[in-house]
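Quick one: co-fold with phosphoric acid mono(formamide)ester.
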Amino acid sequence: MELDYLSVDDLSPKELGELLDLAADVKARPDAYAGRLADRSVALIFEKPSTRTRVSFEVACVQLGAHPVVLSSSELQLGRGETIEDTGRVLSRYVDAIVLRTFEQERLEVLAAAADVPVVNSLSDFEHPCQALADLLTMRERLGALEGRTLTYLGDGNNVAHSLLLGGAKAGMRVRVATPVGFEPIPQVVQRAGALAVESGGAVEISNDASAAAKGADVLYTDVWASMGQEAEADERMLVFTPYQVTQALVEAAGDDVVVLHCLPAHRGQEIAAEVMDGPRSAVWDQAENRLHTQKALLLRLFSAA
Ligand code: CP
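Sure, here it is.
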């Protein structure tokens, strides 16, 4: 496994499977891993708001015996113009890993190149690879083996969609993404996911037809229509995205045992109907919990402690 986790594509399909196996064991036997990262420190830098990622990473560190140092950019000299490279060089002298939530993926790549310790992407505009680990673990818990299963993502072809395309394709899934015209995932990611699917026996299907994409799906997944930083576009997006809402009708058109996922925070009545979000097919709370277990597994692997 590479020392940084900036993209789901930093894990081979084998490494991804092993990491999910470890996460399942960490979840089943948390005491067996307590203290494995004693004397380690992890910087958790958030340049965007967060509930799940911030709290789950902080708790993950504590449960493993590591010391989390949680920082916002306004608390750092980053907020006054110090470069991300210099920040990485300095933090490398104090901590054993750096987790960064930021805007551009390039900022993570620059940080990783300058830092002497592992760097983890805890969300950029391009990918959300930690979220994808929790998503895949939740799907495995509900469905068993993922090969040949159909994962349908409806809505914005955003960072979450990118990580699901790569992760689902690596896991041998048929990944369908249906978005409004002009909001498709970027071609570079679709191309890479397609190549991974050829190797894994999965498939990648991009369309603008929510009904067709939902038909027979094993998993229906959605995310907010206006991501952080896109709030000014929210009203305009609402009009374009309304046909992509995960409704009860789409749930009924999917497979009998369909699992509904949402990375959260959710907007009931927008990207997901309230009756679906709070209904019997929803696994969103298990999915949110799994952020903790998968990130513990990720930290253990980054430090070769499991
Ligand atoms: N899903 C997710 O990343 O949630 P937060 O933005 O609250 O961390």
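If it helps, The chain has a mean pLDDT of 96.
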